[in-house]
């Protein structure tokens, strides 16, 4: 289920700046000359073309996967979110999966997935959240799955999330509504939570403070790349404005987004909050390994029981 997601990378800049393995130690301690070269490269690779490459590297949008049998067995139904984009001035059609809850009064949750996987690959994670008592709507951003073809961007993905939130509000006006984001989707979830005032709660899993901070955790993090980054996803700055209760979950063995980034985001939050470290959890299995921790945190922070 998560074969594609397991290959998720946020910024494969090493494709542009290859580094010989046997000279790694030398590169870790750059001289003033090397720093000057990096600055020159920053200038060279700036501009619209590099922004497009960057968006491809960060989102790694994937075409639709055929999981019809699995979808039907889990009770997932196709939905479509349509709106006119202010970002592009074009009509947009987002594909979504809906997992209804047998209790009519159940809270509803907007599910925002990460990079390099479409909404169908999130079915198991959706089901785990459903077991916690939520009805779940998961969307594909533009460029993913069956949604409107486009090269995704931070602004467009956040606009897609807002459109899905409005869709839920129109169809479930009396239900408590929650926002959930995994990995890159966590940054989109934080952004959405700062724009709406009717979110009952926010859950982020395996996410980060910003894209520059993620780059800084890599072996080549000393490279002066920050001026190039247009898709910044600065959650640390935005999370201070989140008023809804916030649950931050991270796997202790997450090798893609280090747990200290999740902890740092948690520390930046100023509202009611809780941090859950799932021991032994990786970037992709906290919903399985930490299911009981999830259940307890949802009960204690949001007052919800399944």
Index terms:
globular, 17% strand, 12 helices, single chain, alpha/beta, Rossmann fold, 306 residues
Outline the structure in words.
Helices cover 36% and strands 17% of the residues. It has 306 residues and is an alpha/beta fold. The chain has one domain: Rossmann fold, CATH 3.40.50. The chain has an 8-stranded mixed sheet, with helices on both faces. The protein is globular.
Report the strand count: 8
Distance between the first and last residues' Cα: 25 Å
Strand and helix order? HHHHEEEHEHEHEHHEHEHH
**What's the CATH architecture?**
3-Layer(aba) Sandwich
CATH topology: Rossmann fold
Write the layout of secondary structure elements.
Elements: H1 24-28, H2 32-44, H3 48-59, H4 68-73, E1 77-84, E2 91-99, E3 108-112, H5 123-131, E4 135-139, H6 154-171, E5 177-182, H7 184-195, E6 199-205, H8 211-216, H9 235-238, E7 246-251, H10 259-268, E8 273-278, H11 286-289, H12 291-302
Parallel strand pairs: 3-4, 3-5, 5-6, 6-7, 7-8
Antiparallel strand pairs: 1-2, 2-4
